[in-house]
Amino acid sequence: MTRSDEELLASAGRGDQAAFALLAQRHYEPILRFVRRFLGADLAACEDLAQETLLRAWRYAPRFEPRGSARGWLFQIATNACLNQRRAMRLRGAAPLDADPLSTADAPAAAESHERHQRIRSAVARLPESQRAAILLRHFEELTYAQIAEALEVSPAAVESLLHRARSRLRELLQEIAENPPTPEGLGRPACSSG
Fold first, then answer.
1. What are φ and ψ of residue 84, in 5° steps?
2. Number of structural domains, the chain?
3. Which of the chain's termini has less CB crowding within 10 Å, N or C?
4. According to the model, what pLDDT value does residue 185 have?
5. How far is CA 63 from CA 13, 145, 174, in A?
6. Distance between alpha carbon 61 and the CA centroid of its chain, in Å?
């Protein structure tokens, strides 16, 4: 019988390393994808942050409250790690790295598909952090509204509002990009505001 994520996390909270290893195996790749899409950083830096997310999850597993989902809780940790990383990058004055976090390494990208991904990546990167996180969690990681609410530490109604504002803003940004295509240097520069 397959154990649920919540059962694995509860066992990990009692020190069961094998349970946590299985939980980490299930969620490492989705967390890594989310981190890459959120930060737009190189793979090695994102792998480090995904591993840090799982280390924090192991450390905080005894505190997990089963009223929420384990998946939402893990993405809450990942979101906070991304926000902390972005703040640190701004404080150091480091420019965001220009990776292509929306593409996958194993998918051959036709020129049109690549351009479309670049336009979407550029638009998503320009969203405020909370809207970007909501869009990525919903449309790329397929979390429920309740899981997103848990991950972002807001109410489900706030998630609905964030997604509505984000989708509206994405439509505007994609229209702007279509009318005035950015230069290659300008693609993927995340906005530094939140909201």
1. -65, -40
2. 1
3. N
4. 52
5. 7, 22, 41
6. 20
